[in-house]
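retry 2 of 3: previous attempt timed out while embedding guanosine-5'-monophosphate. Reduced batch size to 1 and resubmitted. Inputs unchanged:
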Amino acid sequence: MPYDDNGIFAKIIRKEIPAKIVHETDTVLAFEDINAKAPIHILIVPKVPVESVNDLQDDHAQIMGEVLLAARDIAKQLNIDEKGYRLVINTNSDAGQEIFHLHVHLLAGRKMTWPPG
Ligand code: 5GP
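retry 2 succeeded.
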């Protein structure tokens, strides 16, 4: 699936549509999920146009590292680092990916079940 420059997350990154932004760097944006599945549900997105994990290139290694560092910083900022949180990346239909701009879900604020559904 080719990257859709008019997709929702592309527009949020360009600040063309609003989102509750919780963290931003030159390369990463994090904002609240519009349909939260937990008391805390943040989406962390690399600003580069990549549809899914399948579409990552070797030269995305740096920015994907920065996505994880953003998760670390947000967890500390929201004071959930000690209690815990879950990071999820859905890829394609079996995982239920709906938005084809790679994103990490950060879920927290309740006890998570394992295995996930
Ligand atoms: P996926 O299923 O692709 O892993 O997750 C997409 C997520 O994006 C869903 O949790 C959904 O609630 C969220 N989402 C969809 N549209 C919007 C939107 O316009 N704004 C925000 N903040 N989140 C959205």
